[in-house]
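Bug #77: duplicate submission created two jobs. Keeping one. Sequence:
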Amino acid sequence: MKLARLVAINILVFFALLAGLEFFFRAKGSSATAAIEQPNGMQLHTLPYMMFANPPRSHYSTWLNTFTGQNIKADITANNEGFNDPRDFDWRKPYKKAANEKVVLVTGGSTAWGLGSTSFSTTIAGALQTELNGASRDIKYTVINLAMGSWIAYQQFIGLEMWGTQFDPDWVIIMDGHNDAGVGCSYSQGVTNPLYFPVIKKLVDAYSATGVARPVYLRSWIENELIYHSVAYRTLTGKKYIAVSDEDVDVTSQDAGRDIAAKVILPTKLGAARDMLRFYIKATKASLSLFPRAKYILSTQPLVNQFTGEFVDAYKPSQLEADPVAMSKREQVLETYLEANEDKICNAETYQPSFTYVFVKGAFELEKLAAHERAGGRVVEYHNIGRIFPDARADRLKYFIDAPHINDLGALEIGKFYAKRILQADR
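Kept job's structure:
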């Protein structure tokens, strides 16, 4: 009797301690609700087709300029769906345009979203809207920012269809290339997959790794190890050990502190870059099909590295379009470069041939796609935005805060360029 009472008292004390610990953290102000959130600030979106987005109403007050080591003050708050736009989006409510109003949709990745800009007005979309309305007397231009960090082109297509159709756009601007060139191999997420797909796949697989009819729900590392070592636990629970090996993660990645989830991979060879490129162009064609009456600008986002280092002499200073002979020559070099590396496994150390292949050939393929659409009577332009900045890396630094992201000055230059193309076509 004494033993039973002692055990009961100890159990009560144990649960009292657990309750006290929970009360402490709740009183401290920690989150009382659980959510799956990506380490770089992205979180799973309530619309699963989009995969992930910035958290609604998330605020950004600083950006780090990695070249100077200085923090840039910012004041940006995402809208109800995580987009960097001053208006909330509702796919159920059509936007009512004024009689003299034209709507421009902008989509892309984090650079188009505005990472590096100090406010919405200094993003590419904001600068574009200012430039258009400053130069137009009869037409009011409204620019909608539908870009999202880390999105690849097919996510952009989904975003345009989900949120863009209610705006009945007159223009659609797509600026991408970096994520479609990088996600598949540098993060080894595989062909057609957005960022974080492998880690979500691992979670889903964890539900079904069981020898019984009911699913195995998410488990801790301790329980997984207990399953591995204990015959009794495996027998009583019917659970199976979920193996995790070096093949499941990119052990070469040095980005451990910020983006752990992106290190979970699907083993992919560099030769898959050819299919990554095909999927990129397929997604762009899908976006072109959404608004047959709208005019389009397809474009490749700029990077800080020397422009001719990647595109050599394919783009002449006096020409808006690529030189066909130089473009063909560069394509052959890229094919040879990929062939020499195609059997290597993608990771943070080996990805460069794949990235260069998709990024550079992607620009050329967009150029050809735009020409094909124009031949069919549509207004579709292509522009490699990297060429509007100085060629040398040292001269490009003042427009960037890191390799793919621009500051206010860079966004203004891009906004001016897009505005010039739109105004010229509309006149």
